[in-house]
């Protein structure tokens, strides 16, 4: 009985790790920026870790980029992993990666030069609009 309880406890502790163990595939129909990198439109494989986010074009492992990510605000459990962009004029900026099963958010900061570009769009009257893309859709 003690062994069974120990095994059940281990399974419960390992559950959050296994929920995000498989990378997600997202169809992103537009080019975008994240931190200091440009990304073309395409299908992306995304893997979230504690302090970074790994993005790669599906079928092209050479395109792998590792982006610094910070824990963001908590959210409700939705079951869907989601990439959150801001559309500012014709510029798309990857801002967050939401891990629906865990209720966790990984925020993606921009480099100083990218923040200046975003500021110039806003100064010209463009306002950020959220664009959400869920995995597998």
Describe this structure as you would to a colleague.
It is a single chain. The chain contains two helices and eleven strands, in the order αββββββββββαβ. The protein has 137 residues and is of the alpha+beta class. It has one domain. It is globular and about 40 Å long. Mean pLDDT is 81; it is low at 3-20.
Write the layout of secondary structure elements.
Layout: H1 2-19, E1 24-28, E2 32-34, E3 37-39, E4 42-48, E5 52-57, E6 65-68, E7 70-71, E8 82-88, E9 91-99, E10 104-107, H2 112-123, E11 129-134
Antiparallel strand pairs: 1-4, 2-3, 4-5, 5-6, 7-10, 8-9, 8-11, 9-10
What is the number of strand segments? Answer: 11
Largest sheet: 5 strands, antiparallel
Mean pLDDT: 81
Q: Give the termini distance in whole angstroms.
A: 44 Å
Globular, elongated, flat, extended or rod-shaped: what is the shape? globular
Placed side by side, the strands forming the largest sheet appear as 7-10-9-8-11
Helix content: 10-25%
What Rg, in angstroms, do the CA atoms define?
A: 17 Å
Low-pLDDT residue intervals, each spanning 5 or more residues: 3-20
User: What is the number of helices?
Assistant: 2
Report the β-strand fraction as a percent range.
35-45%
**Pattern of helices and strands:** HEEEEEEEEEEHE
Number of domains: 1
Return the structural class: alpha+beta
Task: State the gist of this model.
It contains 2 helices and 11 strands, in the order αββββββββββαβ. With 137 residues, it is α+β, with helices and mostly antiparallel strands.
């Amino acid at each position: 009985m003690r062994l069974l309880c120990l095994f059940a406890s281990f399974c419960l502790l390992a559950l959050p790790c296994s929920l995000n163990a498989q990378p997600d595939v997202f169809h992103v129909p537009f080019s975008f920026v994240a931190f200091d990198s440009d990304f073309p439109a395409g299908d992306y494989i995304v893997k979230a870790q504690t302090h970074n986010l790994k993005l790669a074009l599906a079928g092209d492992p050479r395109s792998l980029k590792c982006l610094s990510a910070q824990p963001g605000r908590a959210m409700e459990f939705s079951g869907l992993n989601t990439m959150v962009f801001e559309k500012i004029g014709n510029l798309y900026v990857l801002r967050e990666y939401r891990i629906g099963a865990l209720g966790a958010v990984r925020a993606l900061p921009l480099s100083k030069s990218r923040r200046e570009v975003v500021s110039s769009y806003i100064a010209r009257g463009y306002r950020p609009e959220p664009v959400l893309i869920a995995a597998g859709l």
